[in-house]
Design brief:
heterotrimer, A alpha/beta, B alpha/beta, C alpha/beta, A: alpha/beta, Rossmann fold, five-stranded parallel beta sheet, C: alpha/beta, three-stranded antiparallel beta sheet, 8 strands, binds zinc ion
C-alpha cells in the first residue's frame, strides 16, 4: 500500500486485509511486551495542521509500539501559520528523511495533494482532511463492529448483512464519508439520518438510504447506530434552530436508547457532546463501544502503518 | 522592416480562397493572384484567415501584480493565441476606478504593441461594492471606457446595480456583471453537486449565479439599459438568458473556453489548476453552454485569462487561487469543443471571437472582419494541426493552464495587429520589433 | 526451468518420525515441551510432529504457531507480507522447552526473528530448532538441532516444500537455475 488517503478507493480484499492485520496487532497488544521491532529505523511524522490530541496520540502510540521513530510536527502556531506553505513543510520533512507522514489538515484533499505533488516520497496517511475523509476512523469503526459481531472468529469476515445507521451532521463529517464507503464495501447496508440542511444536496452516487426521521430509522432495528458529533457553531449558520431542538429530533436520548434491541451496537467517534447528540446513559451503556473504539484505534493504525511501510516501496 | 504583407491562398471563414494584402495598417486588398511591391509573402495555403480575435475578459494584472502578468506579457500571450484586442479587467492595484489608471493601462498596451488593450473600468470604488466609481471620467478619458465591471466581485447591492445600469446610458456604456451571490458562496470551493458532496468541498451552487442573472436582466429591462453577463457557467443561467432575450431585454453573455470543455469531475484530482471562478460545472452544463453558444443565447467566447504565480496553485485546494490562463489555448479549445462537434463553423467563430465582442465592447478598430479597408487585424490559423498542449505553448507569465497534457487541435500560425505581424510561423515576434513598429505607427498617426 | 523431486512422501514421513524420536530423546520425554511452527508450512510440520509425539508418548500434545513477520529486518525488500496469527498453547512458554519448527532453513534470518518474537512472549528454559530441510547458506550463527535432510544447494536454486494439507501432496523439489 503506497498511501492511505481514503476509504473510497479501498477494495474489499484490501479492506479485509487491513482489518485482519489489525487483529494480529490487537493480539500483540494483549501481551506484557506490547512493543514490536517491526518498524525499527523508520521515521513517522505526525503532521497536524489541526488540533486533535486524541488522534495524534493514537497514531503516536501505534508508531511507537512498532518501534518507529516518531516526530510530532504540530503545524498550528508554528512556521506554517506564518505563511510557510504545505509544499515547504513537505520538502522539510523530505529532507529529514520521513518514511511516512500522518497528516491531519483542515483542507479537503490536502493529503492527496501531498501524495501526488512529488514534493515528498514518504507514504502518506490521511488522519482526517477537511470534510473529506478520515479513513483510519472508519477502519477502526468497522473493526469494532466486526469484533462485536464475530468475536474471536473475526479474521477474514466482512460485514455482510449488517444494517448501520449513521446519525448527525453528514454534510461536514469526514467520519461519515469514510464510513459510507468502507462499510458498504464490506457489505453492510448504510442508512443516514440527519436534518435536511446537513445532508449534501446531491447524494445520487452514495450507496445509502437517507432519511430525516430518527425514530423511523431506529424502528427498523439497525444492528449499529453511529452518532456523529454536532458542532455548536452550525446553529449560527442556521443549519438548525438550536441545540434543544436538535437533541429532541436527532439525539440518542434515553427514550430512544431503551427502544433499541439490547444487542444494538452504539458508536460515537468522539469527542462526545453528552446530552446533545448522545445521552450520558447511551454513552456509558454496555451497548456503547466508545472505549473499545479508542483501544481498537491503536491496533488499526498499527496495521495501516505496517502496510504502508513494509513491502516494496517502488512506484 | 517591411510593413506590407501579401498573404496568399488563405481561406476566409466562409470558405472562399483569397489573397490578402496588408498595407499601412489596413487590409488593403482582397482577391486572387494579387501582388504587392516589397511585400513579405506568406503562404497561407490550408490556413483559415480569421478576423483578429477580440477578448472581452482578461486579467493583465498590471499595475500591481506584475509577478503574475504584465501588459506586455499578457498581450504576448494574446498575440500567440491569435488575439489582436483584449479588454483588461479592473481588479488591478490600484483598482482601475479612475481615469488615471485606465489611461496608464491603455498606454502600456500601446507601447507593447502586441494587441490593443482596452481597459474596463470598475463599477464601484475599489471594487468594494459601496460607492459608484467615476464612470463618466473614465468614459471621457483617453481610454474611452465603455465596459464597466467589478469582476472578481459581484455588484451585489441591487440599488447600486440599478444605478450603475442607468448611469452608463449617458455614454452608451455597459455593465459586465460577475454573477455570484456572495452569501450563497461563502467559502465555496467547487460546483455544488454530486462531486462536492463526495469530496467534502464547500459547494458553489448554480443558483448563486442564476439568481443574480435573473435579478439583473429584470433590472436592465426596468431601466432600459444594456447588461453583459461574464462567464456564464450553468444550464440554468442559459435558460434565464434565453427567456430574457426572448423578452427583448438588452443582455449579452459570454462563456469561457474552459467551461466549454472541462467539467467538475476533474476536481477529484484536487489539482488546483482546475480551481476557477465560476467553478467547473457538470457535464450537462457544458453541453448546455455549447448549445447556447451555437444558437446565440450566449453571444461570445471570452477567456477570463487569469494568470497566477506558481505558488498560488502549488498548494492544497482550499488555499489555491481561482483562475486559469486561457489566451494561448482559447482558439484550440473552442475548436475542440464546438467546431469539431459541428455546432459552430468558422463564420460563427469570427462572430463569437471577433465581431460580437468588439460590438459589445464598443470598439471599432477591431471586429470589422476581413474586408478591404478594414483595420489590419488578421489571424492565420491552421485547423489541421494538432499538438499536445504544454508549457512551451504559453508565452505569458502564468503557467496555470488546465490544458497541459491534452491533445488540442489547430495552431495559430500568424497574427497581425494593426497590419503588423506579432506572430509569424507560429512564433512570437521579438519584443523590440513589435514595440518599434507600434511607436512608428503612433508617430505616423500624429503627423 | 526444471523441477527435480528430491524427497517423496515416504521420505518426509520417515524424517518427521525420526525428528520426533530425537526430540523426545533429547528432552527425556514429552514433559514441558512446546512445539511452535513458523507459518505457513512450519505450522503443518509442527502439527504432524505433535501427533507423532502424542502417539509415541501416549500423552496428547498440541502445537502452536509463531508468526515472525513483525520481527523481520527485511520488510522493505519484499512484497508486503500479511502476518499470520500467533497461537501459543494455553500453558504458555515460560520455563518450557520450545521447539521451533520450520520447513526450510536457509539464511537463518527467519529464526533470528522467531527468537525475538519468543522473547516478547515469555522466557522459555531452552529453545531448539527443527527443520525439514537444511539447504545451507547461513548468514547468522544459527544451526538446527533436528534436521530431516541436508540438501546442499546453489543460491540460484529454489527449494519447494509441498505438504498435502496445503498443497495437496507431500514432496520436496528443487527448481534449478530459476532465472
Ligand atoms: Zn469573473
Amino acid at each position: 500500500m503506497r498511501h492511505l488517503l481514503s476509504t473510497r478507493d479501498l477494495d474489499l480484499d484490501t479492506a479485509i486485509r487491513l482489518l485482519d492485520v489489525a487483529e494480529d496487532m490487537a493480539d500483540t497488544q494483549q501481551r506484557e511486551v506490547k512493543k514490536l521491532p517491526t518498524l525499527r529505523g523508520k521515521t513517522v511524522v505526525n503532521l497536524f495542521f489541526e488540533d486533535s490530541t486524541r488522534t495524534r496520540i493514537s497514531f503516536e502510540a501505534a508508531a511507537k509500539r512498532l518501534s518507529a521513530d516518531v516526530i510530532n510536527f504540530s503545524a498550528k502556531g508554528s512556521s506554517v501559520s506564518k505563511g510557510e506553505s504545505l509544499k515547504d513543510t513537505a520538502q522539510t520533512l523530505q529532507a529529514m528523511g520521513a518514511d511516512a507522514v500522518v497528516i491531519r489538515h483542515p483542507a479537503s484533499g490536502a493529503p492527496q495533494t501531498l501524495a501526488t505533488s512529488g514534493w515528498i516520497d514518504a507514504g502518506i496517511l490521511n488522519a482526517g482532511d477537511g470534510t473529506h475523509e478520515h479513513p483510519t476512523q472508519a477502519l477502526l469503526d468497522a473493526f469494532t463492529i466486526r469484533k462485536r459481531v464475530h468475536g474471536a472468529g473475526s479474521r477474514g469476515k466482512s460485514l455482510d448483512g449488517l444494517a448501520v445507521t449513521i446519525v448527525g451532521d453528514i454534510l461536514h463529517s469526514r467520519v461519515a464519508r469514510s464510513n459510507v464507503w468502507l462499510l458498504t464495501t464490506l457489505g453492510a447496508t448504510v442508512t443516514l439520518v440527519a436534518p435536511p440542511t446537513l445532508v449534501p444536496v446531491d447524494t445520487r452516487n452514495w450507496p445509502v438510504t437517507i432519511g430525516y426521521d430518527l425514530d423511523d430509522a431506529l424502528a427498523s432495528g439497525p444492528d449499529v447506530v453511529m452518532m456523529l458529533r454536532i458542532q455548536g457553531e452550525r446553529m449560527r449558520d442556521a443549519f438548525f434552530p438550536n441545540s434543544r431542538e436538535y437533541s429532541r429530533r436527532w439525539g440518542l436520548d434515553d427514550g430512544r436508547l431503551h427502544r433499541l434491541e439490547p444487542t444494538t451496537i452504539v458508536m460515537h467517534p468522539g469527542p462526545m457532546n453528552r446530552g446533545l447528540e448522545i445521552s450520558a446513559a447511551a454513552a456509558d451503556s454496555p451497548m456503547s463501544t466508545v472505549r473499545e473504539q479508542v483501544t481498537n484505534g491503536v491496533s488499526v493504525r498499527m496495521a495501516a502503518l505496517y502496510l504502508l511501510l513494509s513491502g516494496d516501496r517502488e512506484n | 522592416m517591411t510593413n506590407t504583407y501579401l498573404i496568399s491562398g488563405a481561406a476566409l471563414p466562409d470558405g472562399t480562397r483569397t489573397d490578402i494584402v496588408l498595407k499601412d495598417g489596413l487590409i488593403a486588398e482582397l482577391g486572387t493572384g494579387l501582388s504587392a511591391a516589397g511585400a513579405q509573402r506568406i503562404d497561407a495555403d490550408g490556413l483559415v484567415a480569421l478576423p483578429g480575435l477580440v477578448d472581452l475578459h482578461t486579467h493583465l494584472r498590471e499595475p500591481g501584480y506584475e509577478q503574475s502578468e504584465t501588459v506586455l506579457t499578457g498581450t504576448q500571450a494574446a498575440a500567440a493565441g491569435g488575439f489582436t484586442a483584449v479588454f483588461a479587467m479592473a481588479n488591478t492595484s490600484p483598482v482601475a476606478d479612475t481615469a488615471g489608471v485606465v489611461e496608464q493601462e491603455l498606454s502600456l498596451g500601446e507601447q507593447a504593441g502586441y494587441a490593443t488593450v482596452q481597459p474596463i473600468g470598475a463599477v464601484t470604488v475599489g471594487l468594494a461594492g459601496e460607492q459608484l466609481a467615476e464612470l463618466g471620467a473614465m468614459a471621457s478619458s483617453r481610454a474611452r471606457v465603455r465596459v464597466f465591471s467589478d469582476d472578481g466581485a459581484c455588484v451585489w447591492d441591487p440599488v447600486l446595480m440599478r444605478r450603475a445600469l442607468e448611469y452608463v446610458k449617458s455614454f452608451d456604456g455597459v455593465i459586465a456583471q460577475h454573477a455570484q451571490e456572495p452569501r450563497l458562496t461563502v467559502g465555496a470551493q467547487m460546483n455544488e453537486g454530486a462531486v462536492s458532496g463526495e469530496l467534502g468541498l464547500t459547494g458553489w451552487p448554480a443558483v448563486a449565479e442564476e439568481s443574480i442573472i435573473a435579478r439583473d436582466v429584470l433590472l436592465a429591462e426596468h431601466v432600459g439599459s444594456s447588461l453583459h453577463i461574464c462567464h456564464v457557467s450553468t444550464a440554468g443561467s442559459v435558460d434565464v438568458l434565453r427567456w430574457a432575450k426572448a423578452r427583448g431585454i438588452r443582455v449579452t453573455a459570454e462563456v469561457t473556453p474552459h467551461h466549454l470543455l472541462l467539467d467538475e469531475e476533474l476536481v477529484r484530482s484536487f489539482d488546483a489548476r482546475y480551481k476557477v471562478n465560476p467553478p467547473l460545472r457538470r457535464p450537462e452544463d457544458v453541453l448546455a453552454l455549447r448549445e447556447a453558444l451555437a444558437d446565440g443565447t450566449i453571444d461570445i467566447v471570452a477567456t477570463d485569462h487569469a494568470p497566477h504565480p506558481v505558488e498560488s496553485k502549488d498548494c492544497e485546494w482550499d488555499a489555491a487561487a481561482n483562475g486559469m490562463v486561457g489566451l494561448e489555448s482559447a482558439l484550440s479549445v473552442v475548436h475542440a469543443s464546438v467546431v469539431e462537434s459541428g455546432q459552430l463553423d468558422w463564420t460563427d467563430i469570427a462572430r463569437v471571437l471577433s465581431s460580437e465582442p468588439a460590438r459589445i465592447g464598443r470598439i471599432t478598430s477591431h471586429g470589422q472582419g476581413i474586408v478591404a479597408g478594414a483595420p489590419g487585424q488578421v489571424t492565420l490559423y491552421d485547423p489541421s494541426a494538432s499538438r499536445e498542449f504544454g508549457t512551451a505553448d504559453l508565452t505569458g507569465k502564468g503557467v496555470n493552464s488546465p490544458f497541459f497534457g491534452r491533445t488540442l487541435p489547430g495552431r495559430v500560425i500568424a497574427t497581425f495587429h494593426n497590419g503588423f505581424a506579432t506572430v509569424l510561423d507560429g512564433e512570437l515576434r521579438p519584443t523590440e520589433d513589435v514595440a518599434r513598429f507600434a511607436a512608428e505607427q503612433r508617430m505616423g498617426a500624429r503627423v | 526451468m526444471s523441477a527435480r523431486v528430491v524427497f517423496q512422501q515416504a521420505d518426509i514421513a520417515r524424517a518427521l518420525t525420526r525428528i520426533s524420536h530425537e526430540i523426545l530423546e533429547s528432552n527425556r520425554g514429552a514433559d514441558d515441551l512446546v512445539l511452535l511452527g513458523i507459518p505457513t508450512r512450519g505450522v503443518v510440520l509442527a502439527d504432524r510432529i505433535a501427533a507423532i509425539i502424542s502417539d509415541i508418548s501416549g500423552t496428547p500434545m498440541e502445537a502452536g504457531s509463531l508468526d515472525v513477520t513483525m520481527y523481520r529486518d527485511d520488510l522493505a525488500k519484499h512484497p508486503t507480507r500479511t502476518p499470520s496469527p500467533t497461537r501459543i498453547p494455553a500453558s504458555g512458554i515460560d520455563g518450557k522447552t520450545v521447539i521451533l519448527v520450520d520447513d526450510v532453513l536457509y539464511s537463518g534470518r527467519t529464526i533470528r526473528a522467531a527468537l525475538d518474537a519468543i522473547g516478547d512472549i515469555g522466557r522459555p528454559r531452552a529453545v531448539r530448532l527443527a527443520a525439514l530441510i537444511d539447504r545451507g547458506h547461513r548468514e547468522l550463527p544459527i544451526r538446527p538441532d533436528f534436521v530431516g535432510k541436508n540438501l546442499p544447494s546453489a543460491q540460484t536454486e529454489r527449494i519447494n516444500v509441498h505438504l498435502s494439507e496445503i498443497d495437496g501432496a507431500d514432496l520436496v523439489s528443487i527448481d534449478s537455475a530459476a532465472r
